[in-house]
């Protein structure tokens, strides 16, 4: 079976509507919001490239007020019109092509084009999971426009086909995305974890808003194909997932922060050992890491994680907010549980 047929079969098995009704708007507009998510245990490497099925499970926290708000309506032309933060996106740009190709997976052939209006309050493509909240909010907006009545688990499966990490962007708080074992990916979706940690804060340290030199998609594939160290990654993930859950259970912040930091650094180590090497570190990134390690030695419980970009996300508790602000005056602080 071709992968596109697998995707259509998955889509139609999730829907409650008859296949000929799936692309008929039930309102003038559909609206969806999705928070961005930051992985504490990363998704890095796919067992199926076309279905975005991950090699391992992963675990994230959502940033509740940072994300994407997307509105969709039918567009009376033979192309999708995409507006990102009030600016029309060029039709043959990578962003527009990726979005339209995603929609082509579900809509009837060469018809049903959309006007898509996306508003994001995070930098696009700088390692702050803009594709995760972008695809999750788009799928929620489609669910609204076409009245599919899908539950979040199903939306998570559909959004995953756009970008893997989007599978985790449907809930606030801690979310696990299961790797699953099925070839069609029906068991690979996100699920919220029933832990709350009201004091937990994330600090976004934006050191560069320039587009990343290589996409996470390409970088993870290169890692899987060329890094000898990648063989240890699944073991590291299994260990870290267990420790993170234990840390949540016993509310042990140093254990949570340290495990997240070590997980991110291990992911970057697999990238550095790829060929050609993948390096998302900028001089500012390294300088910030040293500052964090030094303050930690002096007693501050401050940790970081880093994705496919030069920016760091700081992890700390509310009681240390002022100290963190003094250390990094430009930091944007988000409370994970409001
Ligand atoms: C480093 O979800 O962007 O942020 O599935 O190819 O779209 P695709 O990749 P993407 O990768 C995210 C990688 C990461 C780690 C993570 O969020 O878990």
From TrEMBL:
It comes from the Bacteria. GO terms for biological process: isopentenyl diphosphate biosynthetic process, mevalonate pathway. InterPro entries: GHMP_kinase_C_sf, Mev_decarb, Mev_diP_decarb, MVD-like_N, Mvd1_C, Ribosomal_Su5_D2-typ_SF, Ribsml_uS5_D2-typ_fold_subgr. Coiled coil: none annotated. Residues 204-328 form the Mvd1 C-terminal domain. The keyword ATP-binding applies. Residues 34-189 form the Diphosphomevalonate decarboxylase-like N-terminal domain. GO terms for cellular component: cytosol. The keyword Aminoacyl-tRNA synthetase does not apply. SUPFAM superfamilies: GHMP Kinase, C-terminal domain, Ribosomal protein S5 domain 2-like. Belongs to the diphosphomevalonate decarboxylase family. It holds the Pfam family MDD_C. It comes from Aquicella lusitana. One of its GO terms (molecular function) is diphosphomevalonate decarboxylase activity. Its EC number is 4.1.1.33. This is diphosphomevalonate decarboxylase. It is an enzyme of class 4 (lyase).
